[in-house]
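Q: Can I borrow your eye for a moment on a structure tokenisation matter? Would you mind producing a protein record, from residues through to fold? Write it directly below this note and I will take it from there.
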Amino acid sequence: MRTNRPPIEREIDARGLPLEGKLPSGLRGTLYRNGPNPRAGVADHHWFLGPGMIHAISLGEEQCAYRNRWVLPRDERGLGKANTHAIFHAGSIMALEEAHAPVALVPETLARTGATYAPGPFTAHPKHDPLTGELVFFGYAADGAGSRMIRCGALNRSGHRVWETRFSAPFCSMVHDVAVTSRHIALPILPLARQATSGNDASFAFAWHPELGGHLAVLARGACGDAVRWYEAPTVYAFHIVNAWEDRDRLYLDLFVYDAPPLFPGPQERIPFCQNARPCRWSVAHDGHGPVRVEPLHDMVGEFGRIDDRIAGSRYSQIYCTSRRHPGAPGFQAVARLDLMHGAIDQFDFGSQAFVSEPVFVPRQHHAGPDDGWLLSLVWRPDFAQSRLVIFDAGHVADGPVASVTLPQRVPDGFHGSFVSDVFLDLERAL
């Protein structure tokens, strides 16, 4: 096997995982990682469509444990695939994808909790406000497949909806992520659009239509949808927004931008596999005039940008991401830190055949300063029998991992996840 895309078939529990190096003092908790994992005999025609599987790895006291579970049972209906992200909110792990409401899981067992949240399309990338504890969300196609309606809202710390509104976009765009500041949300409406003859809801019928142009919607948090402001945006595509903030005059958002989206058909029905995304900064004036201003941040090729979430929505200086070091290779081969103040990149390359997952930042201590902590990522290569969890000092990525945990099986290419401090898997409780 030369790629890390094929699914796995086993749900397993394991403890006492092999460890190289030494777990950092104070790194205690569980990493939850979500991704699509088609079941045996079920052929989803697009990588994004496999049902979600959570991989959970607990770290603490020099002991490491692992559990993986499909989010939903085989015969579940109506809850989507829950295959893109896993976050912690209101006491539960939320398994997320953008077409359905979150699926709530018990952090210690990965069993369903039965908790329910705002029904309807709910982004895979809601944003926590570190000051209020609110979880800001949105959902596209809010009135059904192909609709132009977008819903925006917020859940409080307890998971109860405290605000929701709607507005109509120029077309039905695949809007994967949202920018959130203390006062505003911003949504890129880019021309990866649902086709008019798309068939049923199970069809992943989005295609690149550059003739539709790019748009950016900006709305004050808590406002009514009819107050949305529209800006002309570049005709590009971005899956992921790294962070956003604002000053008196402008709103800023940083994102990884493709000239055209990979894995989706273009005007000639060709589906490109390996496109390059580069980090750039967009900004708009608060007075609502003029197009989006674009500033390149670096010429690196990367994706899956993360930050120290304690400063989300504020001005910041470090992006943690994956990096493509070997042109033409599928996936990403390096963990990287992009220093925005100095325009410098600090990265560790696992080799041309490696598949590296999104790095997750964990503070060194509860009261550690910004960007003082660890990066956790999963890596697999054809010469690895299983995947490995690698742990970096976030300030010295090029020095290589300070510790590496060998997992009991391969973790296929997936998308996103979160680390929850001082929460551990309970392997004594069978599911």
Notes: The chain has a mean pLDDT of 93. Residues 45 and 203 are 9 Å apart (CA to CA).
